[in-house]
């Protein structure tokens, strides 16, 4: 199969072999995918040439794996899919990656253009590139082996430059088998130079921002996953500690500075949002997660500084008094260099007010965590998880669900950058196993995935993938028998389960036994602590079914207010 690439005498190569050469030249070391016509040989050959191929059970999980690998490594994660249905299965992950600002490339085989364009009904025929366009940062198609080098380079540069995102790269069946001169093919290959260049902010914008910050009585820094992606932890720590300003981490930015940092205001969130007079956003958008920077959660007189690489983001929801457009590391570098010219500080009264609220809220939380119930609730179960994870500060924590998501975010402290991976900007269910797999594959480290029982179901079959590749992943299923709750009635009084119900008393642990992983069932915090400790010590794939009271969840977790308000029709 590989005679052309390995034989310098050969005069011809083809699109499939050259595609692998181009990926290797660009440093691609892993492909996440599902094979079939027309990409099976491509995956085989990539593996043969030293690229790790991780085969999934569903393309959406492969796409999620590629997306989070892009977030973690700043190199685009590669997802390989077959035509039409495989492509569409992966597209959800590509769209979510674009929304989250994660660099990935979905490479999909596609069928015969002549047949597709005349809509004559090809095997798995779909006009994929045009379908992908609205869901991706960009979509490109390679029609000739001669264009592979440029096509791959273009996909990489687009994925990682500016605000990162998902790129769709269409490779046609005809292109994969089309031949070209092998020497010319090798000569055509290149890797893009500096695909994500530093972007310094202009000095006027930095001065404007520092001046505004110096005028604040109640300053606040909000850190988003853009800062985590930018790997700005060193600069951020310098800036935060030298100014003394409190900070609030967005979900995936937890750990960029440790959650137990004295300036962390996470447990006084309502206070700081409600009172801050100057807010500096660092790689965080004013989207729904921050109620668009307006409304009753915010001080109406607050003024904003925003550090972002994407100029169009500025003013997207409300006026920004001091935009700083550039990459976060460069922007913070310049701000740090210039900060001594401004009297930036944090008034003691503001710190004291925050500390007082923190103390009260931490005490309230402590009481919840230590109150035992039978069955367990989210808080006493999470206390058990937290007790164990405090000894594993380098572990990845993947997290999805509603109550399981919100309560875990609040209870489980993060101490290191980029270790918390969750549903992200869209609040997507189904990222769990894909993210867990890629975190384990890219780092070689341990992963714990804390999953609502509903959330787990979206990617649950990938536990077979976890077992097949013997990844050190422990899945903890918070099993309350449903979406939000397991005890909702069917309003008709009929026999069918309610829309939010799942099987009561399901044993998710039994699933992993089928594939040789280790199964645990935990009904008390002590059992959970013991099971999680054993699972992590073993370094083997494991699943803990964690039995949670079906009655304790809240509708939609912390965002029940987003449900449409309806009234029953008058009878
Ligand atoms: P969160 O959900 O944590 O609030 P968002 O995803 O809403 O964070 O915002 C991340 C922001 O960070 C985006 O607006 C994106 O353009 C920006 N961003 C991403 N990478 C960089 C970077 N290297 N430098 C500057 N801004 C970045
Ligand atoms: C792709 C809607 C939001 S949260 C959730 C669903 C289905 C599951 C909540 O139940 P879970 O957690 O996981 O058991 P818990 O602890 O509250 O019981 N489809 C997609 N994404 C979303 N967000 C939904 C549906 C949803
Ligand atoms: Mg549930």
| Poorly predicted ranges | none
Look up the CATH topology of the largest domain.
Rossmann fold
Helix residue percentage: 25-40%
Largest sheet: 6 strands, parallel
Q: How large is the radius of gyration?
A: 25 Å
Give me the number of helical elements: 23
CATH superfamily of the largest domain: Thiamin diphosphate (ThDP)-binding fold, Pyr/PP domains
For the record, the CATH architecture of the largest domain stands as: 3-Layer(aba) Sandwich
Averaged pLDDT, please?
A: 97
Number of strands: 19
CATH class of the largest domain: Alpha Beta
What would the principal axes of the Cα set say about the shape? globular
Q: Which structural class do the helices and strands define?
A: alpha/beta
Total tally of structural domains: 3
List the main descriptive attributes of the protein structure presented here.
571 residues; alpha/beta; Rossmann fold; six-stranded parallel sheet; 19 strands; 39% helix; 16% strand; globular; binds adenosine-5'-diphosphate; binds ligand TPW; binds magnesium ion
Write the layout of secondary structure elements.
Blueprint: H1 3-6, E1 12-14, H2 15-25, E2 30-33, H3 40-48, E3 52-55, H4 59-73, E4 77-81, H5 84-100, E5 104-110, H6 113-117, H7 128-132, E6 138-142, H8 148-160, E7 166-172, H9 173-177, E8 179-181, H10 182-188, H11 203-214, E9 219-223, H12 225-229, H13 233-243, E10 247-249, H14 269-275, E11 278-282, E12 303-308, E13 322-325, H15 328-338, H16 348-370, H17 378-389, E14 396-400, H18 403-411, E15 420-422, H19 432-443, E16 447-452, H20 453-459, H21 463-468, E17 473-479, H22 509-513, E18 518-522, H23 525-538, E19 542-547
Parallel strand pairs: 2-3, 2-4, 4-5, 5-7, 6-7, 9-10, 9-11, 11-12, 12-13, 14-15, 14-16, 16-17, 17-19, 18-19
Antiparallel strand pairs: 1-8
Helix pairs in contact: 2-3, 4-5, 4-19, 11-15, 13-15, 17-18, 17-23
The structure holds adenosine-5'-diphosphate, ligand TPW and magnesium ion.
